[in-house]
Design goal:
alpha/beta, Aspartate Aminotransferase, domain 1, Aspartate Aminotransferase, domain 2, three-stranded antiparallel β-sheet, 11 helices, 10 strands, about 35% helix
Length: about 350
């Protein structure tokens, strides 16, 4: 898989790990990330400002723009290519609504529903959705395929998509690419410039509050999209876009913006700043090292993944983890754990003790 350029670290990994107040036994970053002390402090301070009546819409807007720029830097695009929103499904829905009538979309079977349902919902227009095995995604594209949409890391299994093969096939068949990086950004390098568009909700591995999501898009694909969620925040001049009847949208990806839930973006700023300041290759090595250590102890094949899952149809293993006060999850008939910055070898030991008493 092609990876993003290595980021120059300004904050050592050990220091970044020390910015969390908890995390022992928390193996669920793939479900809900944990905030750093800086995010907690920022949100508390903002609540006090709001309570005093001193909150200011324009200052919130400045925060949003700083976060937009920080995220752009994190995923190797320019801020002009980043739109902001609140949910993956809303952004995927905008893309889905822009698909030409009767066109074909190819998806990996078993992907997260926010990357599936918006496309299935276009059946009334004759849009055809083919769902294939993730491993077969690249070879399943044809000249009839308008869009291939997939998660870089599969939510249920942690499996990484073969982006090199998918991109090569898409180039050959003139197929647009949409990649959901929600389960990738924050634990591994991500280069959004490799795809026509990407979506990322930052409340998991990036540790931002829920309601902070990003959409990156290149110029060619942007011309194919309809800004169906356009509101005042998508206007070229925000404060001149509060009322009709005319509509003048931003010429950049901002025309796809959805009005932000301001307090969430206050918490997102220190979260995104931290991940911009550390070497994501080091974070990846830390996370997959713990994942591989668990695989070794459970006699599972090494996967080089931050998310480790295994069959658990009756939920017995998940119940054992929960009984040991370990926060994990169950998805698609599998037990699922995730290792992030705040985890270490002690968390591996706790999980093994719960599963192999």
């Amino acid at each position: 898989m092609t990876s993003a350029p290595t980021r120059t670290s300004t904050v050592p990994l050990a220091e970044a790990r020390g910015r969390y107040t908890s995390g022992r036994g928390y193996l669920a970053a793939c479900t809900l990330g944990l905030p750093t002390i800086d995010t907690i402090a920022a949100m508390r301070a903002d609540t006090e400002v709001w309570a005093r009546g001193d909150a200011c819409a324009s200052r919130y807007g400045e925060t949003v723009e700083r976060v937009r720029s920080g995220y752009a830097d994190l995923v190797n695009v320019t801020p002009e290519r980043v739109a902001i929103g609140s949910q993956t499904s809303v952004m995927a829905g905008m893309v889905a609504a822009s698909i030409p009538d009767g066109a074909e979309v190819v998806l990996p079977r078993g992907d997260f529903s926010s990357m599936v349902f918006p496309f299935l919902a276009q059946a009334h227009r004759g849009v055809t959705v083919r769902q294939v095995a993730l491993a077969d995604l690249a070879e399943s594209l044809s000249e009839n395929t308008w869009l291939v949409a997939f998660s870089l890391v599969q939510s249920a299994t942690g499996t990484l998509a073969d982006t090199d093969a998918i991109r090569a096939a898409a180039l050959t068949t003139n197929t647009f690419t949409l990649c959901d990086t929600t389960q990738a950004a924050g634990w591994m390098p991500v280069d959004a410039s490799l795809f026509d568009a990407t979506i990322c909700h930052s409340y998991k591995w990036l540790g931002a509050p829920r309601g902070v999501a990003f959409f990156t898009v290149n110029d060619a694909f942007a011309l194919e999209l309809h800004p169906i969620n356009a509101g005042w925040y998508a206007g070229d001049d925000l404060w001149a876009s509060c009322y009709g009847p005319a509509m003048t949208l931003a010429p950049t990806a901002r025309r796809f913006d959805v009005s932000p839930a301001w307090p969430a973006w206050v918490g997102a700023e220190p979260a995104i700043d931290m991940f911009c300041s550390i070497d994501m290759a080091e974070v990846r090595a830390h996370c997959i090292g713990l994942g591989n250590a668990l695989c070794d102890r459970l006699d599972l094949p090494r996967l080089d993944q931050a998310i480790i899952s295994w069959p658990d149809a009756d939920g017995r293993d998940l119940a054992r983890l929960t009984a040991a006060q370990i926060t994990a999850s169950g998805r698609a008939g599998r037990a699922r754990v995730a290792f992030h910055l705040f985890n270490d070898d002690d968390d591996v030991n706790l999980a093994v003790a719960a599963l192999r008493p």
